[in-house]
Specification:
Oligomer: single chain
Number of domains: 1
Number of helices: 1
Largest sheet: 5 strands, mixed
CATH topology: Hypothetical Protein Aq_1857, Chain: A
Structural class: mainly beta
Radius of gyration: 13 Å
CATH class: Mainly Beta
Strand order of the largest sheet: 4-5-2-3-9
């Protein structure tokens, strides 16, 4: 899998890490959802054994092996300039126009 980002998106991703190490996990969140899931990105401290690593510039994205088939081979992640969210697309699909990044690095330690 390949994830394409532009310079503005790269800047926003770096800002969301706040100078701390972390991984961006791309997944469909089905918790408390009566649907097939909502596309989400979380910043986590460590990958799980079932995660696939995708290197994008200086960032590492993770996708669970079981969810990899839900995504096209090449994705484009684009930061919204007017709102604190991201758009995820491919040449053949619009995955979401309102993906927020949730930092859960400290949650696991509390």
């Amino acid at each position: 899998m390949i994830i394409l980002i532009d310079p503005y998106t790269e800047e926003r991703l770096a800002k969301s890490l706040a100078g701390r190490p972390g991984f961006f996990k791309l997944f469909y969140d089905t918790e408390n959802c009566g649907c097939n899931g909502v596309l989400a990105i979380e910043i986590i401290e460590q990958p799980l054994e079932t995660d696939i690593k995708i290197t994008v510039k200086t960032f590492t994205f993770l996708v669970d092996k079981q969810q990899e088939s839900l995504f096209d081979k090449v994705l484009k992640l684009e930061a919204d300039r007017a709102y604190p969210s991201f758009k995820v697309t491919s040449d053949s699909a619009l995955y979401s126009t309102n993906v927020r990044i949730k930092d859960v690095r400290d949650i696991a330690n509390t």
